[in-house]
Amino acid sequence: MFAKNLRMAYLLDFYGAVLDEHTRLVMEAYYDDDLSLAEIASDEGISRQGIRHIIKRGEEQLVFLEEKLGLAQEHEKLGSYTEKLTVFKERLASSGDTDGADLIGEIIEQITNKGF
Amino acid sequence: MFAKNLRMAYLLDFYGAVLDEHTRLVMEAYYDDDLSLAEIASDEGISRQGIRHIIKRGEEQLVFLEEKLGLAQEHEKLGSYTEKLTVFKERLASSGDTDGADLIGEIIEQITNKGF
C-alpha cells in the first residue's frame, strides 16, 4: 500500500495543486524525483516516520479526490485517443481536408494541454 | 458575492461529490432546485443564517478546487467543440468515411460523458 507506484504519481500530477505546499513538495520528492524516505527526511530535517506520515496523508487526499470525482480516469480515457486522432489528422491532411485536420489538431491540443 | 449564479451551479455539478453530504444537499436545494434560504432553513430545521453559512463554506470549497485545478474550465473549453465535432461527424458519415465518423462519435461521447 505504501509502495511507490505510477498510479499515485499520476494522481499527484493531476490533483497535487490542492495539497498544501509542504505535502506536495515532499510527495514530489518521493514520487517524481524518486528519493527515499530517509533522503527526504534528511533534507527536511524531520524523522523518516514524519515523512512517511506526510506522504500517507497526502495519498489519502489524492485517492479521496479521485474516488469522488473520477476525473483522472476520465482524462486517461480521453488521452487514449490521442494516437488515433493524430493518425486520423494526418489522413485528413493528406486527403486535402484541411478544415477537418485543423479541427482534430485543436482537439488533440486541448486533450494534451493540462488534462482535457 | 452571495447571489445565485450559473457558474457556482456548474462548479457544484462538477466538484460537488467532494462536499460532505449535508452541504451538498443544501447547496443543491439552493442552486439546482432554486429554493430560498428561508425555505431550506424550514426544511432542515435550522436557522436561515445557518443555511447561509453552510452554503458560503461550500462555495469556498468549490472555488478553491477550481482555482487550484482549473478542470471545470478545461472541460468547458473541450465541451465547446461538441457542436463542431457533431457537424464534422455528419460530414464524414455522408462522405462515406464511417471509420472517421465512428472515431469522432466516440470522442463526442467521451467529452459529454461525465466531463471529459
Classified in CATH, the superfamily of the largest domain in chain A is Winged helix-like DNA-binding domain superfamily/Winged helix DNA-binding domain
Number of domains of chain A: 2
Name of the CATH architecture of the largest domain in chain A: Orthogonal Bundle
Query: What order do the SSEs of chain A take from the amino end to the carboxyl end, as H and E?
Result: HHHHHHH
Overall mean confidence score, pLDDT of chain A = 92
Largest sheet of chain A: none
List the helices and strands and how they pair.
The structure is a homodimer of 116-residue chains.
Chain A: H1 6-15, H2 21-31, H3 37-44, H4 48-69, H5 71-79, H6 82-94, H7 98-112
Helix pairs in contact in A: 1-2, 1-4, 2-4, 3-4, 6-7
Question: What does this molecule look like?
Answer:
Two copies of one chain form a homodimer. Chain A has seven helices and no strands. The model of chain A has no long low-confidence stretch (mean pLDDT 92). In chain A, 76% of the residues lie in helices and 0% in strands. Chain A has 116 residues and is an all-alpha fold. Chain A is elongated, with a radius of gyration of 19 Å. Chain A has two domains: 64 residues, Winged helix-like DNA-binding domain superfamily/Winged helix DNA-binding domain (Arc Repressor Mutant, subunit A), CATH 1.10.10; 32 residues, no CATH class.
